[in-house]
């Protein structure tokens, strides 16, 4: 299993009145981690979109464990949890600087044609990308 890491500095604008990171910001951080993973593996979301495809989020699940606060660094750890013909599930941990888990999450994605939103297998679009995801997935398909 391959895990990508992305360091972030928590900005004041990302916190609520209690000085705690507002929950919706975690979704943005998941996207940052996912983009970093794709980049680390040598692939490009931009090239996928330029070819006429997008990868919408079908499901998000976040479990909050320990509050993050303004001015502190955090780390987003991202990996491919599962990959099948149509779906990719990414796994995430967001960590405090001391390694304490602040949140865990998963997001589920499919690839669709940009003009019709019809699902298409990643294998048909970019076989190398699809095979790399199968190779590094935490859980192997049956």
TrEMBL record:
Protein keywords: Hydrolase
UniProt cross-references to InterPro entries, sorted A to Z: 4-hydroxybenzoyl-CoA_TE, HotDog_dom_sf, YbgC/YbaW
Keyword Endoplasmic reticulum: no
A Pfam family per the record: 4HBT_2
Keyword Cell cycle tagged: no
GO molecular function: hydrolase activity
Enzyme class: hydrolase
The protein's Enzyme Commission number: 3.1.2.-
Family: Belongs to the 4-hydroxybenzoyl-CoA thioesterase family.
Protein name: Thioesterase family protein
